[in-house]
Write a structure and sequence with these properties.
The protein is α+β, with helices and mostly antiparallel strands. It folds into two domains: 6-55, Arc Repressor Mutant, subunit A; 59-141, Alpha-Beta Plaits, CATH 3.30.70. The protein has helices at residues 6-17, 23-30, 34-46, 79-90, 116-128, and strands at 66-74, 95-100, 107-113, 133-140. Strand 2 and strand 3 (107-113) form a beta hairpin. The longest helix is centred in the N-terminal third of the chain and has 13 residues, at 34-46. The radius of gyration is 20 Å and the shape is elongated.
Length: 163
Amino acid sequence: MANLDRIDAAILVQLQRNNRLTSDELGALVNLSPSACQRRLKRLRHEGVIEGDVAIIAPKSVGRMVTMIVLVSLERERSDIVDRFKQAIRGTREVMVGYYVTGDADFMLVVTAKNMEDYEQFTRRFFYENPDIKGFKTMVVMDRVKASFEMPIDPDDELFHQR
């Protein structure tokens, strides 16, 4: 776990709301000089606290009309098979999110497609041609109610002690 203080937490809260803030704007929001904000941002990125800066795109605006939640079960749960499937997930553009999970399935994926025909082609290529996959279950998303990567952070939490 990273060693973060209340100012780091406040910076993270603000960046999650708007990662396009200038150093001046961010400094004003967290009571810090712009140069001190820059130093902290550099450290937070270097330490992997900030994994990336992204834009959340409306899927329909780029022709991705359907989203699916897919539960995947592997033939065997061996480390080499799990590692191969993780690598396949990372290398597949249609898979927006992938989790290695406990329970009835081994993986939970969020997959995007242009239409159901496009998704069928994806399943043939990604699932049916992979001998390590025992089966998969697809749930079609009817409405995207919330799309966020915002982590709930409370700068007043004990976790964010002064360094």
